Structure formats: structure tokens, C-alpha cells
Amino acid sequence: QKEVEQDPGPLSVPEGAIVSLNCTYSNSAFQYFMWYRQYSRKGPELLMYTYSSGNKEDGRFTAQVDKSSKYISLFIRDSQPSDSATYLCAMTPGGSYIPTFGRGTSLIVHP
Amino acid sequence: DSGVTQTPKHLITATGQRVTLRCSPRSGDLSVYWYQQSLDQGLQFLIQYYNGEERAKGNILERFSAQQFPDLHSELNLSSLELGDSALYFCASSGGLAGADTQYFGPGTRLTVL
Q1: How confident is the model at residue B96 (pLDDT cuts 50, 70, 90)?
Q2: Residue B24 has pLDDT above 80, yes or no
Q3: E strands along A26-94, which residues?
Q4: Does A99 touch chain B if contact means CB atoms closer than 8 Å?
Q5: Chain A partners of B45 at a C-beta cutoff of 8 Å?
């Protein structure tokens, strides 16, 4: 079992839909949780960054962490075709910044 | 644009050869990280340098080595290349050494080994 599990998709949704992307993990030491967006042939770009459990909102994006269930989510409201990309979750224990990445979920938002 | 630059963008070479990938971090960032991304393994951490010193090692093969120079740019050297080394290689940089910090990724170098 990998430390971080993420469904590779692809996830195909119509424009305007609410998208839910998820990761599960097994290492209870993880404290910092991140979501990256990666467009085709580009480097990952940090979208959201949260510490411990709870919700964090930034525009159309909401990150949610449930440490008791070892489960994190990224919600995208009013999805746009420009949101089509691969979304990678990443997490790290406190005291170091060497994140463990999920494999990424490919999202396709069609007009 | 993250501010991290990587050269070259593409590299095509043959098995058994040696290549060097170059990374310039964002202005002011002291840490450089190297990652390998392949379809079957995802994004894998290779090695971290902080202000010229090696700080952390991940799944880096012995055939691979890296260094960070006084001007903070970094090079990743890959030798005795095998077909399985074909992948995207990313460099990322951040300001701090450890703890909660943000990594900014470069555009990557696509290595193809024939």
C-alpha cells in the first residue's frame, strides 16, 4: 500500500459542476497538506496549503482535511474548462519539507 | 511563471550516456529540490540541497548525483543511462530549510533515453 493514494481518473465533468478530488493516506505523522495543479507538460503549481484538520477556502477552491479519517479533499466550484489539468495532493510531516505526492487525478471540464 | 528555470527543456540521448540537467532557483531561495516524474511512479523526490549542502536524499539512484553551486544554481547528473530513466525531471526551490514552506516548481526537463 502506498503512503498516499489518489484515484488517477480521468474525471470528466461539465462546465459549472462542483468537482471533488480526494486523497487518502496512511502516515499519521503528516501535518501539512497541499494541492498542486499540473497542466500538461508544465511543472506543478501550488494551489492550496493547509495545516492539520479543517477547511480552507480560496476563491472557487476549498481544501478539506480530516486527520481522523486520514482523508483530504479539494473542491472546485463552478468548474471551468481552464481547470482541466492533473491535480496532485501532497503531504509532509512537521519539521521537514520533503512532501509525499499522490499519483494525481486527471480532471477534464468540458464546455 | 514560478521564477524557477530549468535547461534544457528536452533531451534525447542513448543508453549508457551521461547528461546534466541545470536548475536556477527563484531569486533568494536557498533550497533546491530535484524530482523525477514518470507515468508509472508519479512524482518522486530525489534530493535536496540547501545553500550548497546536501540536506535530504530520497529515491535517488547511485548513477545519479547532484550539486548546488555558490551562486545557488544546481545540476543533476545522470550517468549510465537506461531506458527506464526516461522521465520528466523537475527542480523546485524554496526559501527555508525545513518546516512549513512552499516549493515552487520549474517547467521541467523531458529526458528521453533511446
Answers
A1: low
A2: yes
A3: 30-38, 45-51, 54-58, 61-66, 71-76, 85-93
A4: yes
A5: 98-100
